Amino acid sequence: MKEQNYKNHRRLVTGYHGLTFFISVALLVLSIYSLYASLKDHYDLRYSVMFFLTAILFNLMFYYARSFALKAQDRAIRAEENLRHFVLTGKLFDKGLKTSQILALRFAPDEEFPDLTAIALKDNLNNDAIKQSVKNWKADNYRV
């Protein structure tokens, strides 16, 4: 695996972000077309409605499966980084830090972490600005 940095830290899983997304959108589009064709030609709507509802359900599951997994990862990262901040400074994170800022701070090595945390809080840096401020990138190879 090549060294992670700001430019290449985002990871996409082809099977999920590409194939599954394409299939879910195609399923939804085809179900809408099927429903339209059934209405236009006065066919029995039961199968078209079931197809449409299945497509909606599949798309909702696709969205929420990803959303719930990311929320769980966010909570774990927040706890890990709060512990790291406590170990390095003797204090927990300031309540003013946003989750997005904490997620970005995870890329800072221990030497940069406390100062960058203070700057992020004081200047209200967004996650992208925090990531760009990291001088010696600390890879996170677990989050997808």
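The record above closes out task 2.4. Task 2.5 opens with a second protein, given below.
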Amino acid sequence: MSAPLFLLHAPDGFFSTPVALAFWVITVAALAISLRRAGAQLDERAVPLMGVMAAFIFAAQMFNFQIPGGTSGHLLGGVLAAILLGPYAGTIVMACVISVQALVFQDGGLLVLGANIFNMGIIGTFGGYWLYRTVAAVLGGEQKGRLPAAAVAAWCSVVAAAVLVAFQLAISDTTSLPTALVAMVGWHVIIGVGEAVITVGALAFIAASRADLLRLRDGRMAQA
């Protein structure tokens, strides 16, 4: 199995043009909704926090953690961004981070940038955030269930992204679905543990030192 199949930052040529363009349409629609909804929710404290969050995720993604088998993973950050900022502002942050990585560092292709933003950002900021709120509610609310809910959502966001990339590779005729699933999901089940640990660690630190930042999101979401 060739190493590139392990990547979530897909390069150009991995997905067919129809698949890449379809995910551009989906991603642009999600960003348009996010910009409109976030614009109605943001206050003077939220905008600087978005900048800080983008800088943190960008820097954290520069550090890879090694896993057995000769590959490595890094933080995605979509769930963390959504928990702190809400899904709409979180989506904007993730789109900015992933776009800068592609444009400046050539980490991922430009034709497939829409798919990469969807896979690594929107899955976490929307799907991961919904799962986080659902699990937290089952556990008795965010005060009690914040950290375990964040761990579950963070892990699932990585695995879901890997599964989607496998399907994108398969429908692009880059490789077969079974091969792509084994290559992607097998490793990202482990990488997701790292995502969960980093997400929980960051939230625990923020809850202990700046709990008001967590309450900011609740106020913004109430205005949605």
